[in-house]
Specification:
- The structure is a single chain.
- This protein has 238 residues and is of the alpha+beta class.
- The protein has two domains: 164 residues, Beta-Lactamase (2-Layer Sandwich); 60 residues, Arc Repressor Mutant, subunit A.
- The protein has eight helices and five strands.
- A five-stranded antiparallel β-sheet has the order 2-1-5-4-3, with helices on both faces.
- Strand 1 and strand 2 form a beta hairpin.
- The longest helix is centred in the C-terminal third of the chain and has 50 residues.
- It is elongated, with a radius of gyration of 27 Å.
Length: 238
């Protein structure tokens, strides 16, 4: 079940920092931020000998989902937690702290423990992904043998910081796209309204009266002002 590990990959904190820095520069030049977040988690697997696989949960529209599920050996245990609303992923996001699940801790989630056993998971370390007060998701690291995951918490949190930065960039990008689309719609609406006003002004109304005519039609027919203006323009074209 062990996730592919690069034998020549980093095995020290210094090497891991170097790889994370390189990945951060890649993040600035790509739109595929899901891939960057996933690669950050994979770096943790390669750098931390105690873990054998990873998974990344992100919150989108308030709902959790796993990114790159086809590449994760353990997506099933994350989906189980989403469906049941309980487990270390939820606890890490809710309490905003790393959660280590070993043989002792796993007894607190008996149903989760059964799924973990089926997948060959002996222990897991879940680190929340957050920026400021915003929780963006969680990174899960899985061990197939009994190891001390408390000892690797610092390295896992280092990787989680990079993944959080990538997710934050993604959120900003989405907001910028939405604002750009809203601005474009506003400009197009303004243009068609001005065109319709011009048509009415050609019939003898001044600018104020023409706008009032369009507004009354919008209110009387309970449709948007832009729609009324577009209909008037289309009627002229017909």
């Amino acid at each position: 079940m062990e996730q592919e590990r690069d034998a020549g990959g980093p095995n020290t904190v210094a090497a891991l920092v170097g790889d994370l820095s390189a990945l951060s520069s890649l993040m600035l030049g790509t739109d595929a931020l899901d891939r960057v977040v996933w690669e950050a988690a994979v770096l943790a697997v390669r750098a931390i000998e105690e873990v054998d696989g990873c998974g990344v949960t992100v919150l989108r529209d308030g709902e959790p989902l796993s990114i790159m599920p086809t590449e994760s050996l353990y997506a099933a245990i994350e989906n189980f937690q989403y469906e049941h609303g309980a487990g270390p992923v939820w606890q890490a996001m809710r309490e905003r702290r790393a959660v280590v699940v070993g043989r002792d801790e796993i007894s607190g989630w008996p149903a989760y423990a059964r799924v973990a056993e089926e997948l060959g998971i002996v222990g897991s370390l879940v680190v929340p992904l957050s920026v400021g007060d915003d929780v963006l998701g969680a990174m899960s690291l899985y061990a197939a043998t009994a190891v001390d995951l408390h000892a690797v918490r610092d390295r896992a949190e280092m990787v989680a910081d990079l993944a959080s930065t990538a997710l934050s960039c993604m959120a900003r990008h989405v907001r910028q796209v939405e604002l750009s689309e809203e601005l474009q719609y506003a400009l197009e609406s303004r243009a068609v309204i001005e065109q319709a006003k011009g048509m009415l002004m050609m019939r003898g109304q001044d600018a104020e009266a023409a706008f009032a005519t369009l507004r009354r039609a919008s209110q009387n027919h309970n449709v948007k002002l832009r729609t009324v203006a577009a209909m008037l323009v289309e009627m002229r074209g017909a």
